[in-house]
Design a protein that fits this description.
heterodimer; A: 268 residues; alpha/beta; four-stranded antiparallel β-sheet; 34% helix; 20% strand; globular; B: 268 residues; mainly alpha
């Protein structure tokens, strides 16, 4: 369970990016976080694994306070928090397998990391996860030889290698074409239920948020102004979040052609 | 937009680099005055120059045709130069990596950064010839002085450029490793080094070129290698042999230039 309370982040003396934000994510639900650029979505996600230092407030993952951790404690906490990035952030010049195994860097020692002598169980986990997302045949390819969708699959597998207790995805589909981004969203959705893993997804595409997640959180100017089921996310909510920002196409709120989805992933 | 009676054709000229005309022409004036003053005040002894020209012609004339008769001496000299250059490059490049990490603002804490910068600035502030004179005085004539000199030279040059390369890496890859819970060294090895590797190889090849050339120069002040041979040839008025040495140096530099270009292309 993730519990964020009164989270504040301000850069320098500017107006805070996050203003006393509260958020609770229980069980293994897929939560999408929507909001205009600059609303604080990315900052919030990065506060959770402390890539960004929160100014004040508290973030608890399964009861452990994350905000004041230092050094080794912080690293041990981070390895339980997987993250998927917008730009994939793969090590381009290493192979797919090395990238995937990099997800274990929080567990192995430096010698194992340098010589790439990962434990057998890690290698087996890597292969089975890569097979699950369909990239096992790329194991020895350089990461920069893959297409965008394949690269993001590597990113997802790397995060899952950490055996995370929560998965953060910072606009995981924003660098992908529409079809591929749908595939990645489906993948995240089904992996979440297979591994009973809570997933937080920052996303700009409201249609995808409604289609593939169980809960939508809307941020504006660092405050939460919507929190509810995708079904309740209507034109009014959209206007509240993106208000003043023109949304020409009305179909942005419509779900892509998928029905019966709600029943499929209501497993506890 | 245009006035109805646009009689004059509209013209455009590139705005001057320095907008203020007073400053612009003033700078030209300063440059001209300086040149006139510099040429007027430096002690050129025209009589001595006209006297020396025939001597210069004699030296060059004596160089033709170059004599490769004493090729044994030539080979011994070059062998030593190669040994000096290769050893100094290996040592210098290996040592430049830690110093470059220390001197990169984005990966080193402030005090370490200042220390790393200081080392690089000091090793860059003296020309190899000056350093060679110091080392010859300290450890005596011979190749050891050359190796030490060129190692310092390599640390300064490669370290500086490598530090700048580290400062420009894609930070996303570092974030990804941090998010996986990797420690500082593991992050360096996985996220930083692969990104600077091609540059590092390129710089090492360039530095080998550079050290070969410099080893000829530092040889003149007694630090071993072909420079010593060249100096002796001049001292004994063996201009034809000296010219042969110079030609061989050019050939060696050309070959190493070709090899380094090829290697750099391969590694990218």
């Amino acid at each position: 369970m993730l519990e964020i309370s009164k989270l504040v982040k301000r850069y320098g003396r500017d107006e805070p990016v996050l203003k006393e934000l509260d958020l609770k994510v229980e069980g293994s639900s897929v939560v999408s976080i929507v909001g205009a650029s600059g609303a604080g979505k990315s900052t919030m996600l990065r506060c959770i694994n402390r890539l960004v230092e929160p100014t004040s407030g508290s973030i608890k993952l399964n009861g452990n306070e994350l905000v004041n951790l230092r050094g080794g404690e912080l690293r041990r906490a981070r390895r339980k928090i997987g993250m998927v990035f917008q730009g994939f952030n793969l090590i381009d010049r290493l192979t797919v397998m090395e990238n995937v195994l990099a997800g274990r860097l929080g567990y192995v020692n430096l010698f194992q990391a340098i010589t790439r002598r990962y434990p057998q169980s890690d290698i087996e986990r890597a292969f089975s996860l890569m097979e699950r997302v369909g990239i096992a045949h790329y194991a020895n390819k350089r990461a920069d030889e893959l297409s965008g969708g394949e690269r993001q699959r590597v990113g997802v597998v790397r995060a899952l290698m950490q055996e995370p207790e929560i998965l953060l995805a910072d606009e995981p589909t924003a660098s992908l074409d529409p079809r591929t981004s749908e595939q990645i969203m489906k993948l995240l959705q089904s992996l979440a239920s297979e591994l009973s893993l809570p997933v937080l997804i920052n996303i700009h595409n409201v249609a995808q948020a409604k289609a593939y997640t169980e809960r939508i959180v809307g941020l504006r100017h660092g405050r939460m102004i919507f929190d509810g089921l995708p079904a309740d996310f209507d034109k009014e909510a959209l206007d509240a979040i993106y208000g003043g920002i023109e949304t020409a196409e009305d179909e942005i709120t419509e779900e892509p052609g998928r029905s019966g989805r709600e029943a499929a992933h209501d497993a506890p | 937009m245009t006035p109805p009676d646009h009689a004059a054709p509209r013209t455009w000229r590139k705005p001057p680099f320095i907008a203020n005309p007073l400053l612009r022409y003033g700078l030209w004036l300063v440059v001209i005055v300086y040149l006139v003053w510099a040429f007027g005040s430096l002690p050129f002894n025209w009589a001595r120059i006209s006297e020396g020209l025939p001597r210069a012609a004699r030296i060059f004339g004596g160089g033709f045709p170059p004599s490769f008769e004493r090729s044994g001496l030539l080979i011994t000299g070059f062998k030593e130069s190669f040994q000096i250059a290769i050893l100094a490059t290996l040592l210098g490049v290996a040592l430049s990596i830690p110093f470059a990490v220390m001197a990169a603002k984005n990966v080193a804490p402030k005090p370490i950064y200042l220390l790393g910068r200081a080392v690089i600035i000091i090793s860059r502030s003296f020309h190899p010839v000056i350093v060679a004179i110091l080392f010859v005085a300290a450890v005596g004539f011979g190749p050891l002085a050359g190796i030490l000199t060129l190692t310092i030279y390599s640390i300064g040059f490669v370290g500086k450029l490598l530090a700048e390369e580290i400062e420009e890496i894609d930070w996303g890859q570092v974030e990804a490793m941090k998010a996986a819970g990797a420690g500082y060294l593991a992050t360096l090895i996985y996220a930083v080094f692969p990104q600077i590797l091609p540059r590092q190889v390129g710089l090492s090849m360039y530095q080998l070129d550079s050290n070969l050339r410099a080893s000829a120069v530092v040889g003149i002040v007694g630090a071993g290698g072909i420079g010593g041979t060249l100096m002796n040839a001049f001292g004994r008025y063996d201009y034809d042999f000296a010219f042969a040495i110079l030609l061989t140096i050019i050939a060696v530099i050309l070959v190493s230039e070709g090899i380094s270009g090829w290697v750099r292309k391969k590694i990218w």
